[in-house]
Amino acid sequence: MADKEIYDTVIIGAGPAGLSAAIYAGRATMDTLVIEANQVGGQVTTTSVVWNYPAVEKIDGTALMNQMQQQAANFGVQIVHDQITDYELEGDLKVLHGRHDYYARSVIIAAGAKPRELSFPGEQQFRGHGIAFCSTCDGELFTGLQVFVIGGGYAAAEEADYLTRYAKHVTVISREAEFTCAPLTAARALNNPKIDVKFNTEIVRVTGKDYLETAVFKNNQTGKEFSYQPDSSEQTFGIFIYIGTQPATAKLTKILNHDEHGYLKADAALATNLPGVFAAGDIVVKPLRQIVTAASDGAVAATSAEHYVTALKQRLQIPIERKQKSATKPVGQTTRLAEKSTAIVHQGSWFDAKLQQQLKSIFERLSQKVTLQVLSDSSQKSQELQSFVKEFCDLDRHLDYQVRTATGEENFLPLLELLDQQQNATGIRFAGIPTGHELNSLVLAVYNLAGPGQELAPELIERIKALPVTKIKIGVALTCHFCPDVVSTCQHMAAINPNVSAEMLDLQLFPELRQAKHIMSVPATMINDRPVIFGSQTAEQLVAACESATVK
């Protein structure tokens, strides 16, 4: 094992529990690694506003997780993306199997939980075509439509309130006789004039062709059913499901003690039944699953792991040499920029002083020129895109822009495409104005073309280079925090392989595409006109999907 790096602790999951554990472990100068399969920040990043985190009156869920991630990075903690598929947790040396093998003296399981499904007829069929689980990602796509929220807890009440900024009307469907959350949270739904609440009610089934067309509900006291159908002008409606979570304990329930629902049992020190294995956050049996309790769990688990590892090293006569590690770069640091909202008709500066400083610090690492070419028509959006690009390019000498009148061959305008130093098209395009979260995608595209670029596993790079002609389109909403990771990964592939093109499309601007592909959820990835892939995807998953889409 001499050539294998052995960590003091490996933390599975980068939600509030995992990041809190990383902060405490890093501050204790433990050699720490965090492994995250999906989005850093976990379920909190799907929360529109966090109202109950101590000392913070309210904060965007993604912003809160970004701050936690930065704190962990400041203590030298590294985060990698991988899916752990098997565990060897007995003995003094733990082994975690994923795309790579990871070795640790202690392990903290903080993999969290995923949204629970109801399994009613039509639920899977219409996922992405009307059924959704993230209001901040998909809410914008239901602008002017009727929306149903299924659930009666914290998330249902809060997200129903949030969805009223887009939906014509929101109806909460709760099987309980009242909300199960705190009265103040429930009041956000009960007192909102755009929300109706139907208690003692359950969803029975949904039907439709390409979109949701009918939903049937039942009063669980009387047994009486009733249905909803949109009028002809609306065509469809939305259903957002918030009924709790299911723990991510696959492969773990065979080796760790758990309850009947799969949640892991842990003692007051958050130790499981195996020495050196700890659990924290939503994955643990406990009465309250909130961000603050997850953060507390992370702190306790990391402290317990430190005590365990110290005793283990003393027993094995391994020198205890700890020193503060240098700060690391947070995963996707360049994709976590200050956000700026965009009105329908933009006025004033696109980038405030804080955002300009963030961007300039990234662009300092550019070594080649990039030209941002606008394909313009006579629309107001084209004028806005031109002003956005000009202001963006003024931030660094490596950035230049030019405007070309569209020829009529382009289906989606206005269009921004990136040209390399030799003025060659790179296949990287943005249909619409890449503001909101999609500013992150543009910055990363420039960084990958003209700077050091993001790191990718060497074997993945070779697979990308081997791809034949591959055309990728990613439908996004500018409010979606999952979309930039998919867009930037696909565009990174285009930067590596000239056979690959990757185009971001703001679906709010192109309703005809949404209708043609029956898209009601983002990110919506379309590869060579194959069926739409909905949801967040890792680099490995996207490369595999491209390989599958190009097989003859």
Automatic annotation (TrEMBL):
Domain Thioredoxin-like fold: 471-542
Domain FAD/NAD(P)-binding intervals: 7-298
SUPFAM superfamilies: FAD/NAD(P)-binding domain (SSF51905), Thioredoxin-like (SSF52833)
Alphabetical keyword list: Flavoprotein, Oxidoreductase
Any one GO molecular function term: oxidoreductase activity
UniProt cofactor(s): FAD
Subunit record text: Homodimer.
Name this protein carries in UniProt: FAD-dependent oxidoreductase
Gene source species: Ligilactobacillus ubinensis
